[in-house]
Design brief:
By secondary structure, the protein is an alpha+beta fold. Helices cover 46% and strands 14% of the residues. It has two domains: 6-47, no CATH class; 60-90. The protein has three helices and three strands, in the order E-E-E-H-H-H.
Length: 97
């Protein structure tokens, strides 16, 4: 299993962190030490019965059909225009037009 881990300098040396759903962080004097500490945390969670799984959406056609229904709604164009107007009013950088 491979996980994406962010490692950055930290006052104690380095901090290694994972994102959700794990949200684990560990510190160490070196990158390798921080990663090793993170492995220990993950092993603890897995040893307590936790599992890391992936989820496959089996019926992508039903998701696409639902998205089409939203786009076909008579209110959809009004919603798009309202979003565009909100962005025009609240963006820090004005539109080019």
């Amino acid at each position: 299993m491979e996980l994406a881990v962010f490692v950055a300098p930290h006052p104690l040396g380095f901090r290694a962190a994972t994102a959700a759903p794990l949200d684990l962080t560990a510190d160490g004097p070196t990158v390798d030490a921080a990663l090793s500490a993170l492995r220990v945390l993950l092993a603890s969670k897995l040893g307590a019965g936790g599992q890391v799984r992936t989820l496959t959406v089996a019926d992508i056609d039903s998701v696409q059909a639902s998205a089409r229904k939203v786009g076909e709604s008579p209110l959809f164009e009004d919603w798009v225009q309202a979003v565009e107007e909100y962005r025009r009013q609240h963006n820090a950088v004005p539109d080019a037009d």
